[in-house]
Design brief:
Layout lengths: L2 E19 L5 E21 L4 E5 L11 H12 L5 E7 L10 H16 L6 H8 L6 H6 L2 E5 L4 E4 L7 E6 L6 H6 L12 H10 L2 H7 L1 E2 L2 H7 L2 H11 L4 E4 L6 E4 L3 H14 L4 E6 L7
Parallel strand pairs: 1-8, 3-4
Antiparallel strand pairs: 1-2, 2-4, 2-5, 5-6, 7-10, 7-11, 9-10
Bound molecules: adenosine-5'-triphosphate.
Amino acid sequence: MKDISVKALAKINLGLDVVRKREDGYHEVRMVMQTIHLFDRLEISKNTSGEITMETNLSFLPTNENNLVYKAAKLLQDEFAIKDGVHVWLHKYIPVAAGMAGGSTDAAAVLYGMNQIFDLGLTREELMERGVKIGADVPYCIMRGTALAEGIGEKLSKLPPMVKCPVLIAKPQISVSTKFVYDNLKLGSDMVHPDIDRLVADIREKDLYKIAADMGNVLETVTIPAYPVIADIKDHMMEHGAVNAMMSGSGPTVFGLFDKEATAVEAYEAMKASGLAKQVYLTSIYNNARK
Ligand code: ATP
């Protein structure tokens, strides 16, 4: 096989708690990760140039070693002494710098795709071991589905599949740096933490209403005061029938869960008309694990 087309799916966090700041500066987290059916598409091909090259529809993205696509390709090229070149066409649809693991899922797709086209014979677990060298979220993006992520996000426990429901995604036209969010997080005794164990129990029970009630993201305590548009988007989704709405990751993307497709479609149209968000997508929960 010479060429492959791979989907790179985005994630949302149904729950995100920060347990503590470690001495090495990393934050220990507990996150409930969920794949959604919103994706980039990567066309990966091999050639005889020996080089790693890429192009993308988003002109502001780096196409050099700063792109996680490049890093993933280089990692496998070096480890397996691959003499061939690799070219990746990245069709980018997942909002960038948005809390949806866009770069990580692209890297995961490259590892998966190169394993196929170069017949490397790596198992999913072996790909995940390579992935963590690129980023803490990459192993999860290789695995997909519903999972509890602990440690710095790399310690994964698979959970039963999340209840299927429509998911509305809205990203305002602001950039929020992940570093800013973590640097400004105050983990004092008055911090209200989401109950991640209860959320996991709700997922096991497959009760969308309980899941919605127990969703929580501790990083909103930093982003909402700094960027009130995030609260405006959440309010807008709630006013249009979401069972709950919350920021994903370190933001600024907000997602809303809905119990009826018709309500979600109405909320999607209203969000687009509101001008609150630059990118608006109506998508759904995706539960298939990668083989
Ligand atoms: P996370 O949810 O893991 O915090 P994110 O959604 O906040 O991720 P990304 O979309 O992965 O963030 O991108 C963050 C930065 O990484 C961008 O500003 C971009 O310059 C750089 N980057 C490198 N590779 C990619 C890629 N393949 N897609 C998007 N951004 C990339």
